Amino acid sequence: MSYSVGQVSAFAGVTVRTLHHYDKAGLLSPSERSNAGYRLYSDADLARLQQILFYRELGFPLEEIAAILKDPQANALEHLKARQRQLGDEIARLQQLAEVAERAIEVAQTGVSLTPQERFEVFGEISLDLSYATEAEFKWADSQGHQESMARAAAHTKEDWRQLMGEAAAWRAELLAAYDDGQPDDGERAMDLAEEHRLHISRWFTSCPPDMHRRIADEFAADPRAFALVVPPSQQRPGLAAYLCKAVHANAARHTGGRTASEED
User: Where in this chain does the record put each HTH merR-type domain (predicted)?
Assistant: First the structure.
């Protein structure tokens, strides 16, 4: 059976221009002609085209494909092995580039201008989920508090980060101890820890009145990615995020004379 250039273009998913280019390059020339003199592709031509497209998908240049098809028994396997090695190297290179891009995005979104080694030294297990950072950026982009927080974060030095993360680690240890001891989430110890967290935010990032602190705590309870910013997964306990959220709400009520967020609004 024979096929026109247009037919081959349609079912092979290549352009007519590409087929003409293969023809001109001597890579694939239609082997038949119609009664009117138009070139037609045979079944054998289509089989050859399949091979060409296979090698093109693997990234082989046309000159190398021509060499493979000229003597497939002698060259195909070695060419494929060489291409496999090249693809492996390319994958490794792209993975490295992806990691560099991820670090660049993280710095851009958090304002933390530290090298990867410095980040590990300062932050330890605490890491930022980039999907959460992106969502937060869109969600709070118009918030003055968010803008101030990002600006102040960008201005922190390595020693600033070391100090604030040290404070956070000490606070986290106290929170875990209170939770493990069975202290009530609306008790004085839990509320004092909530207050320490609120003041920590105000001291290092942005003014954090009780109503804002409640919204932050609600985010901790609703999204594990947010809670991982204060307690890494390896240190978390079942129900700990909800415990902290309730403690924050209790502390906020203590500071606002028992008024709820809706009453304040």
Answer: 1-71
* pLDDT for residue 103: 54
Angstrom CA distances, 57 to 6, 20, 88, 89, 94, stand at 22, 19, 15, 17, 18
For 223, the 3-state DSSP assignment is: coil
71: phi > 0 → left, psi -120 to 50 → alpha, else beta; which? Answer: beta
**Whole-number pLDDT of residue 148:** 81
Whether pTM exceeds 0.85: no
Burial class, 22, CB count within 10 angstroms (exposed 0-12 / middle 13-18 / buried 19+): buried
169-177 long-range Cβ contacts below 8 angstroms, 24+ apart: 169/124, 171/196, 171/197, 171/200, 172/230, 172/231, 172/235, 175/231, 175/240, 175/244, 176/231, 176/235, 176/237, 176/240
**240-262 burial, b for 16+ CB within 10 Å, e for fewer?**
bbebbbbbbbbbbbbebeeeebe
Q: Are 134 and 109 in contact (CB under 8 A)?
A: yes
Q: Which of the residue ranges 74-83, 112-121, 162-171 has the most confident prediction, judged by mean pLDDT? A: 162-171
CATH 1.10.490.50 intervals, the chain: 111-264
Q: Under CATH, which number does the domain 5-70 receive? A: 1.10.1660.10
The mean predicted confidence, pLDDT, of the chain is 81
Helix (H, G, I), strand (E, B) or coil at 68: helix
Cite the residue boundaries of each domain of the chain with CATH code 1.10.1660.10: 5-70
**Overall average pLDDT of the 107-119 stretch:** 55
CATH C-level class of 111-264: mainly alpha
Q: At what angle do helices 158-180 and 240-255 cross, to 10 degrees?
A: 100
